[in-house]
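Ticket #4471: structure export looks truncated?
Reporter: QA, pipeline team
Priority: medium

Steps to reproduce: submit the single chain below to the structure queue and open the exported record.
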Amino acid sequence: MAEAHCSLSSWWRVVVIISARPAFGSRSIPMRPWILLAGINGALAIGLAAYGAHGVDAAAVPLMEKASLFQLIHAAALASLDRWDRPGTVSARAAGMLWVIGVALFSGSLYAKAMMVPLPLPMVTPAGGVSLLLGWVALAASAIGKRSDPTV
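Actual output as written to the record:
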């Protein structure tokens, strides 16, 4: 079986790097980090679901299905954050970061279990689930309170 190794610190670096706004020449081109993360997560979810349907033991298929389902749902949620993540919506940004961390931990640990890769820490899957849950709570919190941009 193929080995996969990914640490939380490497995922965090990805989140920080893609949140930056690159500059080309004298003009700054804004990057849309939530759309980028949504696309990456959506593609990974579909690819790993296909691999799970054909490349793992029958006993591991439910783990691959669950991991890819949760990853795909949160890819769609990340895409919606492109609309919500504006100045004054700190909770929306927190939701996105919690979802990225949650998908890495929750889906990543299920993929690892399905591919029989040992997990470096115990309770990774539940920690990822809690992160996903807190992301939804943060999104709900973004709907409460005053916004600096009334069109959002």
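Status: closed, not a bug. The export was complete when the record was re-opened. Leaving a note from the reviewer for reference: Residues 1-5, 18-26 have pLDDT under 50 and may be disordered.
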